[in-house]
Specification:
Number of strands: 15
Strand content: 15-25%
Bound molecules: 6-O-phosphono-alpha-D-fructofuranose
Radius of gyration: 19 Å
Shape: globular
Structural class: alpha+beta
CATH superfamily of the largest domain: Fructose-1,6-Bisphosphatase, subunit A, domain 1
Distance between the termini: 57 Å
Number of helices: 7
CATH class of the largest domain: Alpha Beta
Low-confidence stretches: none
Mean pLDDT: 94
């Protein structure tokens, strides 16, 4: 008898039977994302050999320099999602405005950060893809609590697909020999607290007193800094080993840098589902109705004990 590990497809088909909101249409959307990230991952694994490196020369809506691979990843995901017939609209960190399906068909809205941490691509450091799925509503802007699924793909030493559909968090690792994501991390629970923190300390002169006091206290207890410049990689480390990720608002960027739709809501949903905590300017980011697709906010998330201590300062 061959020992067949559970594939992402097996998992989703089982979810369809056991509990909504997973149904055939959502499964189709998630498998379209899976197909796209396998292609993105394959190019990343050959990034020095295939012609994808370098910059496009222009900037996105957030004034980030757009890497050529940002563009390729965005185009692949957007066209694949809209071709599924299940997606009404795609909003992307790389697009100024959402793109709608031709016949306005489809039941889902998908928000994506196609290539998170893309400045790492030229130096072979970790990268990610982040996605967030809502039921089609009257407005493209919905609270993070209305997400029906969210996840990320971490392109690291292995390629991992981490997913929540509102009933816990599961991780799938790509087996390159068969080209399938196999269940490798069932029901991920974030440690109650940890000794690692992720923040860009290069901005410490601009940090607010709350951030400064928290870091001083945390470091006095022997904390370790781990920061890669890729939110997916840094948050995944915190999810597995415990600790806290911070991209707070500071005196120079009072609205922070990270995007509510494309980074904060999916990551906060995942962290909450794994038993952790997320806070943006003192409140749960999932309760915020975005004012635009490009809204940025402060974000602190991770192990419950660590985030509660941050909030106490
Ligand atoms: P900084 C990548 O550009 C990103 O959006 C996140 O993945 C990451 O956490 C953050 O920005 C890095 O920003 O200012 O430290 O380079």
């Amino acid at each position: 008898m061959l020992n067949k590990s559970q594939t992402l497809t097996d998992f989703l088909l089982h979810e369809e039977i056991t509990s909504p909101p997973v149904n055939g249409s959502l499964t189709m959307v998630l498998l379209q994302i899976e197909n796209s990230v396998k292609i993105i991952g394959s190019h990343i694994k050959q990034s020095g050999l295939v012609d994808i490196l370098g910059k496009t020369g222009y900037k996105n809506a957030f004034n980030d320099e757009v890497q050529r691979f940002d563009d390729l990843s965005n185009t692949l995901l957007v066209t694949t999602l809209l071709s599924s017939g299940e997606v009404y609209a795609v909003a992307s960190e790389e697009l100024k405005e959402p793109i709608y399906s031709k016949n306005k068909g489809g039941d889902f809205i998908v928000c994506i950060d196609p290539l998170d941490g893309s400045s790492n691509v030229d130096c072979n450091a970790s990268l990610g893809t982040i996605f967030s799925i809502y039921k089609k509503g009257d407005n493209i802007l919905q609270k993070g609590n209305d997400q029906i699924a969210a996840g990320y793909v971490l392109y690291g030493p292995s390629i991992m697909f981490v997913l929540t559909t509102g009933k816990g968090v599961n991780g799938f690792t790509l087996d390159p020999s068969i080209g399938s994501f196999l269940l490798s991390h069932s029901n991920i629970i974030i440690p109650e607290k940890g000794s690692q923190y992720a923040i860009n300390e290069g901005y410490s002169s601009n940090f607010t007193n709350q951030t400064k006091k928290f870091l001083k206290s945390f470091k006095s207890n022997g904390a370790k800094l781990r920061y890669s410049g890729c939110m997916v990689s840094d948050v995944h480390r915190i999810l597995i080993q415990g600790g806290i990720f911070l991209y707070p608002a500071d005196n120079k960027n009072p609205n922070g840098k990270l995007r509510l739709l494309y980074e904060i809501n999916p990551m906060a949903f995942i962290i909450n589902q794994a038993g952790g905590l997320a806070v943006s300017d003192g409140i749960d980011p999932l309760t915020i109705l975005p004012n635009s697709v490009n809204q940025t906010m402060s974000i602190v998330l991770g192990s419950k004990d660590n985030v509660k201590i941050y909030k106490s300062f």
